[in-house]
Design a protein that fits this description.
By secondary structure, the chain is α+β, with helices and mostly antiparallel strands. The chain has one domain. Helices cover about 35% and strands about 25% of the residues. Strand 2 and strand 3 form a beta hairpin.
């Protein structure tokens, strides 16, 4: 029997007008220090985006999300932050921001299958 692994996750949010504090969920990042695991996925629904984001360019948001994903995956072509170890990259990605892309507070849990847990959380919280 596999032992449960401790993980932390945060929901990625799009906040079109920061001053209004309205947002919708567009992604998820999950990390486990002991397993040296980090995964970030996003889904930006174009219909929801068009309804809520009249002052924001869709491609700019996608570019930012691609950068987030590349940092999570450690792709050093994008920024020196991507060369940090996994826990530091997770902390950087989930740091409090006042931009249109923000993350929720982090939550913890235990699982015996990180990918399965990620998929379940992504389906429940994002898609």
């Amino acid at each position: 029997m596999q032992e449960d692994k401790l993980y932390h996750y945060s929901v990625i949010r799009l906040v079109p007008k920061v001053e209004r504090e309205e947002f919708f969920n567009i992604g998820l990042i999950l990390f486990s220090k002991e397993e040296k695991y980090i995964r970030l996925e996003y889904h930006l629904c174009t219909d929801k985006f068009e309804l809520m984001c009249s002052d924001v360019e869709y491609e700019e948001v996608i570019d930012s999300l691609v950068t987030f994903k590349n940092i999570a995956e450690g792709s050093c072509d994008y920024t020196p932050i991507a060369s940090l170890d996994i826990p530091e990259r997770f902390r950087w990605l989930t740091a409090v921001r006042s931009t249109i892309i923000q993350t929720s507070p982090t939550h913890a849990g235990k699982t015996d299958d990180l990918n399965k847990t990620f998929d379940r959380l992504f389906k429940e919280l994002v898609v």
